[in-house]
Design a protein that fits this description.
The protein is globular, with a radius of gyration of 23 Å. The strands form 3 sheets. A 5-stranded antiparallel sheet has the order 2-9-4-7-10. The model has no long low-confidence stretch (mean pLDDT 89). Strand 5 and strand 6 form a beta hairpin. It is α+β, with helices and mostly antiparallel strands and 290 residues long.
Protein backbone atom coordinates (compact mmCIF):
# COMPACT_ATOMS: atom_id res chain seq x y z
CA UNK A 1 0.00 0.00 0.00
CA UNK A 2 1.04 3.59 -0.62
CA UNK A 3 2.96 5.17 2.33
CA UNK A 4 1.34 7.75 4.57
CA UNK A 5 -0.32 10.41 2.44
CA UNK A 6 -2.14 12.43 5.08
CA UNK A 7 -1.73 13.51 8.69
CA UNK A 8 -4.87 14.34 10.67
CA UNK A 9 -4.36 17.26 13.05
CA UNK A 10 -5.79 17.68 16.55
CA UNK A 11 -6.34 21.35 15.80
CA UNK A 12 -8.81 20.35 13.07
CA UNK A 13 -10.39 17.25 14.63
CA UNK A 14 -10.54 18.42 18.26
CA UNK A 15 -10.21 22.17 18.13
CA UNK A 16 -10.20 23.25 21.78
CA UNK A 17 -11.89 20.06 22.96
CA UNK A 18 -10.15 17.20 24.77
CA UNK A 19 -12.14 14.46 23.03
CA UNK A 20 -14.20 13.85 19.88
CA UNK A 21 -16.34 10.82 19.03
CA UNK A 22 -17.27 9.72 15.51
CA UNK A 23 -19.37 6.81 14.19
CA UNK A 24 -19.02 5.75 10.56
CA UNK A 25 -20.17 2.95 8.27
CA UNK A 26 -17.14 2.10 6.16
CA UNK A 27 -17.07 1.45 2.43
CA UNK A 28 -15.40 -1.64 0.91
CA UNK A 29 -13.25 0.55 -1.35
CA UNK A 30 -9.54 -0.05 -0.96
CA UNK A 31 -7.96 2.99 0.74
CA UNK A 32 -5.63 5.11 -1.36
CA UNK A 33 -3.00 5.14 1.37
CA UNK A 34 -2.39 5.26 5.08
CA UNK A 35 -2.89 8.20 7.40
CA UNK A 36 -1.44 9.11 10.77
CA UNK A 37 -2.38 11.82 13.27
CA UNK A 38 -0.94 13.98 16.02
CA UNK A 39 -3.47 12.79 18.62
CA UNK A 40 -4.36 9.44 20.21
CA UNK A 41 -7.20 7.35 18.84
CA UNK A 42 -9.34 4.62 20.37
CA UNK A 43 -11.59 2.77 17.95
CA UNK A 44 -13.73 -0.33 18.04
CA UNK A 45 -15.65 -2.46 15.55
CA UNK A 46 -19.30 -2.03 16.44
CA UNK A 47 -20.65 -4.20 13.64
CA UNK A 48 -19.25 -6.29 10.81
CA UNK A 49 -15.59 -6.89 10.01
CA UNK A 50 -12.91 -4.23 9.69
CA UNK A 51 -9.95 -4.65 7.38
CA UNK A 52 -7.18 -2.74 9.13
CA UNK A 53 -4.23 -1.67 6.99
CA UNK A 54 -0.85 -0.81 8.54
CA UNK A 55 2.70 -0.48 7.17
CA UNK A 56 3.21 -4.14 8.15
CA UNK A 57 0.24 -5.39 6.15
CA UNK A 58 -3.47 -5.86 6.67
CA UNK A 59 -5.56 -7.72 9.20
CA UNK A 60 -9.28 -8.46 9.37
CA UNK A 61 -10.75 -7.57 12.76
CA UNK A 62 -14.17 -8.91 13.83
CA UNK A 63 -16.98 -7.21 15.69
CA UNK A 64 -15.97 -6.30 19.22
CA UNK A 65 -12.32 -5.59 18.40
CA UNK A 66 -10.83 -2.63 20.28
CA UNK A 67 -7.71 -0.74 19.09
CA UNK A 68 -5.48 1.71 20.95
CA UNK A 69 -3.49 3.83 18.49
CA UNK A 70 -0.68 6.29 19.16
CA UNK A 71 -0.01 9.31 16.90
CA UNK A 72 2.77 7.52 15.05
CA UNK A 73 0.62 4.45 14.25
CA UNK A 74 -0.19 4.95 10.57
CA UNK A 75 -3.18 2.99 9.35
CA UNK A 76 -6.22 2.89 7.07
CA UNK A 77 -9.72 1.43 7.47
CA UNK A 78 -11.77 -0.60 5.02
CA UNK A 79 -15.02 -2.52 5.28
CA UNK A 80 -14.71 -6.26 4.84
CA UNK A 81 -18.16 -7.18 3.60
CA UNK A 82 -21.35 -5.26 4.34
CA UNK A 83 -22.33 -2.82 7.08
CA UNK A 84 -19.03 -2.41 8.92
CA UNK A 85 -19.66 0.20 11.62
CA UNK A 86 -16.68 1.64 13.50
CA UNK A 87 -16.64 4.04 16.45
CA UNK A 88 -13.58 6.26 16.87
CA UNK A 89 -12.63 8.42 19.85
CA UNK A 90 -9.92 11.02 19.30
CA UNK A 91 -8.09 12.15 22.44
CA UNK A 92 -5.87 15.16 22.96
CA UNK A 93 -2.21 14.10 23.33
CA UNK A 94 -1.81 16.19 26.48
CA UNK A 95 -4.66 14.33 28.16
CA UNK A 96 -3.13 10.91 27.47
CA UNK A 97 0.35 12.07 28.51
CA UNK A 98 -1.04 13.40 31.78
CA UNK A 99 -2.82 10.12 32.53
CA UNK A 100 0.38 8.20 31.93
CA UNK A 101 2.30 10.43 34.34
CA UNK A 102 -0.35 10.11 37.05
CA UNK A 103 -0.66 6.34 36.66
CA UNK A 104 2.78 4.73 36.19
CA UNK A 105 1.19 1.26 36.03
CA UNK A 106 0.00 2.15 32.53
CA UNK A 107 3.56 2.25 31.24
CA UNK A 108 3.99 -0.03 28.23
CA UNK A 109 0.26 -0.83 28.02
CA UNK A 110 -2.61 0.31 25.79
CA UNK A 111 -1.92 3.89 24.58
CA UNK A 112 1.46 3.71 26.27
CA UNK A 113 2.61 0.62 24.34
CA UNK A 114 5.03 0.99 21.41
CA UNK A 115 2.85 -1.06 19.05
CA UNK A 116 -0.92 -0.78 18.49
CA UNK A 117 -2.86 -2.68 21.14
CA UNK A 118 -5.64 -4.88 19.77
CA UNK A 119 -8.10 -6.47 22.20
CA UNK A 120 -11.42 -8.29 21.97
CA UNK A 121 -14.65 -7.41 23.78
CA UNK A 122 -17.53 -9.84 24.22
CA UNK A 123 -21.14 -8.80 23.63
CA UNK A 124 -21.65 -7.66 27.23
CA UNK A 125 -18.43 -5.65 27.29
CA UNK A 126 -19.23 -4.13 23.90
CA UNK A 127 -22.65 -3.07 25.18
CA UNK A 128 -21.03 -1.44 28.23
CA UNK A 129 -18.56 0.37 25.97
CA UNK A 130 -21.38 1.70 23.80
CA UNK A 131 -23.28 2.94 26.86
CA UNK A 132 -20.16 4.80 27.95
CA UNK A 133 -19.86 6.25 24.45
CA UNK A 134 -23.46 7.50 24.63
CA UNK A 135 -22.74 9.20 27.94
CA UNK A 136 -19.67 10.81 26.40
CA UNK A 137 -21.71 12.11 23.47
CA UNK A 138 -24.18 13.73 25.87
CA UNK A 139 -21.49 15.34 28.02
CA UNK A 140 -19.05 18.15 27.46
CA UNK A 141 -15.94 17.58 25.37
CA UNK A 142 -13.59 18.66 28.15
CA UNK A 143 -10.91 16.69 30.00
CA UNK A 144 -13.32 15.64 32.75
CA UNK A 145 -15.70 14.06 30.23
CA UNK A 146 -12.78 12.41 28.42
CA UNK A 147 -11.36 10.91 31.62
CA UNK A 148 -14.82 9.87 32.77
CA UNK A 149 -15.07 7.78 29.61
CA UNK A 150 -11.51 6.53 29.36
CA UNK A 151 -10.46 5.70 32.93
CA UNK A 152 -13.17 3.06 33.68
CA UNK A 153 -12.31 1.31 30.43
CA UNK A 154 -8.57 1.44 31.05
CA UNK A 155 -8.98 0.28 34.66
CA UNK A 156 -11.11 -2.67 33.55
CA UNK A 157 -8.61 -3.65 30.87
CA UNK A 158 -5.69 -3.40 33.29
CA UNK A 159 -7.57 -5.58 35.78
CA UNK A 160 -7.95 -8.18 33.03
CA UNK A 161 -4.32 -7.94 31.97
CA UNK A 162 -2.37 -11.17 32.34
CA UNK A 163 1.40 -10.92 31.75
CA UNK A 164 2.28 -13.70 29.33
CA UNK A 165 5.16 -14.24 26.89
CA UNK A 166 4.54 -12.97 23.37
CA UNK A 167 4.45 -16.52 22.00
CA UNK A 168 1.73 -17.68 24.42
CA UNK A 169 -1.42 -18.77 22.56
CA UNK A 170 -4.37 -16.41 22.52
CA UNK A 171 -6.65 -19.07 24.00
CA UNK A 172 -4.48 -19.23 27.13
CA UNK A 173 -4.82 -15.48 27.64
CA UNK A 174 -8.59 -15.84 27.18
CA UNK A 175 -8.70 -18.56 29.85
CA UNK A 176 -6.58 -16.51 32.27
CA UNK A 177 -8.89 -13.51 31.91
CA UNK A 178 -11.95 -15.73 32.30
CA UNK A 179 -10.48 -17.17 35.50
CA UNK A 180 -10.81 -13.75 37.14
CA UNK A 181 -14.58 -14.29 37.19
CA UNK A 182 -16.22 -16.17 40.10
CA UNK A 183 -18.45 -17.86 37.55
CA UNK A 184 -15.35 -19.56 36.14
CA UNK A 185 -13.01 -20.04 39.13
CA UNK A 186 -15.89 -21.48 41.18
CA UNK A 187 -15.63 -24.55 38.94
CA UNK A 188 -11.92 -24.98 39.55
CA UNK A 189 -9.64 -26.31 36.82
CA UNK A 190 -12.66 -27.50 34.84
CA UNK A 191 -13.83 -23.90 34.39
CA UNK A 192 -10.36 -22.82 33.24
CA UNK A 193 -10.15 -25.67 30.73
CA UNK A 194 -13.63 -24.96 29.37
CA UNK A 195 -12.73 -21.28 28.89
CA UNK A 196 -9.57 -22.35 27.04
CA UNK A 197 -11.59 -24.51 24.65
CA UNK A 198 -8.87 -27.14 24.44
CA UNK A 199 -8.34 -30.66 25.78
CA UNK A 200 -7.40 -30.80 29.47
CA UNK A 201 -3.96 -32.43 28.96
CA UNK A 202 -3.02 -29.81 26.35
CA UNK A 203 -4.20 -26.98 28.59
CA UNK A 204 -2.21 -28.40 31.51
CA UNK A 205 1.01 -28.68 29.49
CA UNK A 206 0.62 -25.18 28.04
CA UNK A 207 -0.19 -23.66 31.44
CA UNK A 208 2.90 -25.26 32.95
CA UNK A 209 5.02 -23.89 30.12
CA UNK A 210 3.78 -20.30 30.12
CA UNK A 211 2.41 -19.81 33.65
CA UNK A 212 4.65 -22.17 35.60
CA UNK A 213 1.48 -23.51 37.23
CA UNK A 214 -1.14 -26.15 36.67
CA UNK A 215 -4.68 -24.97 35.88
CA UNK A 216 -5.67 -26.01 39.41
CA UNK A 217 -2.91 -23.91 41.00
CA UNK A 218 -3.71 -20.92 38.79
CA UNK A 219 -7.43 -21.05 39.59
CA UNK A 220 -6.79 -21.53 43.31
CA UNK A 221 -4.68 -18.36 43.30
CA UNK A 222 -7.60 -16.46 41.77
CA UNK A 223 -9.95 -18.00 44.36
CA UNK A 224 -7.77 -16.97 47.28
CA UNK A 225 -7.31 -13.43 45.94
CA UNK A 226 -11.09 -13.14 45.78
CA UNK A 227 -11.43 -14.58 49.29
CA UNK A 228 -8.92 -12.07 50.67
CA UNK A 229 -10.87 -9.15 49.19
CA UNK A 230 -14.16 -10.48 50.54
CA UNK A 231 -12.73 -11.05 54.02
CA UNK A 232 -11.34 -7.52 54.17
CA UNK A 233 -14.49 -5.92 52.81
CA UNK A 234 -17.31 -7.75 54.57
CA UNK A 235 -18.33 -9.56 57.72
CA UNK A 236 -19.86 -12.47 55.79
CA UNK A 237 -19.24 -15.94 57.26
CA UNK A 238 -16.18 -17.84 56.09
CA UNK A 239 -18.36 -20.70 54.88
CA UNK A 240 -20.25 -18.32 52.58
CA UNK A 241 -17.04 -16.88 51.14
CA UNK A 242 -15.58 -20.36 50.68
CA UNK A 243 -18.73 -21.41 48.83
CA UNK A 244 -18.39 -18.37 46.54
CA UNK A 245 -14.95 -19.70 45.67
CA UNK A 246 -16.39 -23.13 44.88
CA UNK A 247 -14.90 -24.78 47.97
CA UNK A 248 -17.37 -26.54 50.24
CA UNK A 249 -14.79 -28.08 52.57
CA UNK A 250 -13.74 -25.43 55.10
CA UNK A 251 -10.58 -27.29 56.08
CA UNK A 252 -9.50 -27.29 52.45
CA UNK A 253 -10.36 -23.59 52.16
CA UNK A 254 -8.27 -22.75 55.23
CA UNK A 255 -5.32 -24.75 53.91
CA UNK A 256 -5.42 -23.01 50.51
CA UNK A 257 -5.77 -19.60 52.12
CA UNK A 258 -2.84 -20.15 54.48
CA UNK A 259 -0.68 -21.36 51.57
CA UNK A 260 -1.58 -18.27 49.54
CA UNK A 261 -1.42 -15.59 52.26
CA UNK A 262 0.65 -17.08 55.07
CA UNK A 263 -2.11 -16.73 57.66
CA UNK A 264 -5.60 -17.93 58.46
CA UNK A 265 -8.73 -16.30 56.99
CA UNK A 266 -9.83 -15.01 60.42
CA UNK A 267 -6.41 -13.50 61.13
CA UNK A 268 -6.40 -11.89 57.69
CA UNK A 269 -9.78 -10.34 58.41
CA UNK A 270 -8.66 -8.96 61.76
CA UNK A 271 -5.56 -7.46 60.17
CA UNK A 272 -7.12 -5.93 57.06
CA UNK A 273 -10.71 -5.10 57.77
CA UNK A 274 -11.46 -1.52 58.68
CA UNK A 275 -14.96 -0.48 59.63
CA UNK A 276 -15.67 2.82 57.90
CA UNK A 277 -19.11 3.04 59.44
CA UNK A 278 -18.10 2.86 63.11
CA UNK A 279 -14.37 3.56 63.28
CA UNK A 280 -12.62 2.57 66.45
CA UNK A 281 -14.66 -0.58 67.01
CA UNK A 282 -12.91 -3.91 66.44
CA UNK A 283 -13.65 -5.76 63.22
CA UNK A 284 -16.31 -8.39 63.53
CA UNK A 285 -15.04 -11.94 63.75
CA UNK A 286 -17.08 -14.82 62.43
CA UNK A 287 -15.60 -16.99 65.14
CA UNK A 288 -14.65 -19.65 62.62
CA UNK A 289 -11.06 -20.74 62.97
CA UNK A 290 -9.27 -23.95 62.20
Amino acid sequence: MTPVIRTLRAAEVLGRDAVALTRATLTPSRPLGLHDHDFFELLWVQNGTLRHHTPAGRRDLPEGTLLFLRPEHAHALQSRGEDTLVVAVALHPGLVADLGQRHPALGGRLFWAPAPTILGRDSRQLAELNQAALRLERSGRDALAAEGFLLPLVAALMAEDVPLPDDAPDWLRVACVAALSPKVFREGAAGFVRAAGRAHPHVSRTAQRFLGQTPTDYVNARRMAHAARRLAGSSDPLAEIAAECGIENLSHFHRLFREAHGTTPAAWRRRHQHDLMQPGLPAKDSGEEI
